[in-house]
Design a protein that fits this description.
Its cofactor is pyridoxal 5'-phosphate. With 347 residues, the protein is an alpha/beta fold. It folds into two domains: 247 residues, Aspartate Aminotransferase, domain 2 (3-Layer(aba) Sandwich); 90 residues, Aspartate Aminotransferase, domain 1, CATH 3.90.1150. The chain is 35% helix and 15% strand. It has twelve helices and eleven strands. Helix 7 links the parallel strand 4 and strand 5. Helix 4 packs across helix 5. The longest helix is centred in the C-terminal third of the chain and has 20 residues. The termini are far apart. Bound molecules: pyridoxal-5'-phosphate. The site of pyridoxal-5'-phosphate (PLP) has 13 residues, from helix 4. The site of pyridoxal-5'-phosphate has 13 residues, from helix 4.
Length: 347
């Protein structure tokens, strides 16, 4: 597959903005920087941030065992997804394939960029119907979004199903691994070399406990990363975000320990949910949330709101009729949730 043929002509012809920090990258100690019209008085944020986030990428490359050349960072995964749309999808011509029920941003970004959407709903076990996915794609289907573990169902797709789609889809396949750190499945990162059309996205927003700094991570071939790099805003990751990410990633075993705690809490929560009379199904989960089917999702949602607990009502999503998505909280929060779920069971 030739990736160059998938890139929009406009993007191929684009000459990127060249920032002061792009044009001079040399020894930074003891140099006098008068090139970027910054305020010279030090306060920790008076200078523009590193446009290529060198230090942070080195840390991530060590954690994830991948070259920095295969990494692009975004202002949240949402910016990365938007860059992918703009690189590969021609407005009013191309389309994407999504597998509902799934993360809402794919559809929003397609609409925002005037890109068509082909939907192939997941089956009853929330697994992709692989042949239907491959059959629905046409020559203008540039992107296929695979969210695994999937939001809102929580399960991972089988590796056989994913491999068949990545191998046979004629465009770019984006595997959204926002919840991979909670999963028993292996990340597709280790297989990037095998599939030139594969993009894997991850985020610091979930397992790494940094939703507030907005840091999304994109892993792909050098060829794809280069394209996305030419179209990203020059200073897309601000200084505070880079600093905080480096600081927290440096705390030894922080994420590992918290993930273990959350998984333990998830098991406890699931066993307690089994005692709730109006919960008829607890879906298998590989993420930090649980999807449950109840008697009346709108009613239960409102009852919980009245008691001060906010969960996500997914009842309008395909295959999620009367389903609620519960994020695993602290032990205390989960206890409050269970108590409250029990207390409303008579009404
Ligand atoms: C939460 C989530 C993300 C993360 O988005 P950010 O913009 O990085 O916070 C991405 N994909 C899915 C499926 C998610 O649920």
């Amino acid at each position: 597959m030739n990736i160059q043929d998938l890139i929009r002509p406009t993007i191929k012809a684009l000459k990127p903005y060249s920032s002061a920090r792009d044009e001079f990258q040399g020894v930074t100690d003891n140099m006098v920087f008068l090139d970027a019209n910054e305020n010279p008085f030090e306060n920790g944020v008076n200078r523009y941030p590193d446009p290529q986030q060198g230090k942070l990428k080195v840390m991530l490359s060590e954690i994830k065992d991948i070259s920095t050349k295969n990494i692009l960072l975004g202002n949240g995964s949402d910016e990365i997804l938007d860059l992918i749309f703009r690189a590969f999808c021609e407005p009013n011509q191309d389309n994407i394939v999504i597998l509902p029920p799934t993360y809402g941003m794919y559809e929003v970004l397609a609409n925002l960029n005037a890109i068509g959407i082909k939907k192939v709903n997941l089956d009853d076990a929330f697994q992709p119907k692989v042949d239907d996915v491959l059959n629905v794609a046409d020559i203008n289907s540039k992107l296929l979004f695979i969210c695994s573990p999937n939001n809102p169902s929580g399960n991972s797709f089988t590796s056989e199903a994913i491999e068949k789609m990545v191998s046979n889809f004629k465009g770019i396949v984006v595997i959204d691994e926002a919840y991979i750190d909670f999963s028993t499945e292996k990340s597709w990162l280790s297989r990037l070399n095998e599939f030139p059309n594969l993009i894997v996205t991850q985020t610091l927003s979930k397992a790494y406990a940094m939703a507030g700094i907005r840091l999304g991570i994109c892993y792909a071939s050098e060829e794809i990363i280069k394209v996305l790099n030419t179209i990203k805003p020059p200073y897309n990751i601000n200084e505070l975000t880079q600093k905080k990410a480096i600081e927290l990633l440096n705390v030894k075993d922080l994420a590992t320990n918290q993930i273990a705690d959350i998984l333990k809490e998830r098991s406890a929560l699931i066993s307690e949910l089994k005692a709730i009379s109006y919960i008829s199904k607890i879906y298998p989960t590989d993420a930090n949330f649980v999807l449950v089917k109840v008697d009346d999702a709108n009613k239960r949602y409102n009852q919980l709101i009245e008691k001060g607990i906010v969960i996500r009502n997914r009842t309008s999503q395909p295959g999620c009729e009367n389903s609620l998505r519960l994020t695993v909280g602290t032990p205390k929060e989960n206890e409050i949730l269970i108590k409250t779920l029990l207390s409303i069971s008579k009404s």
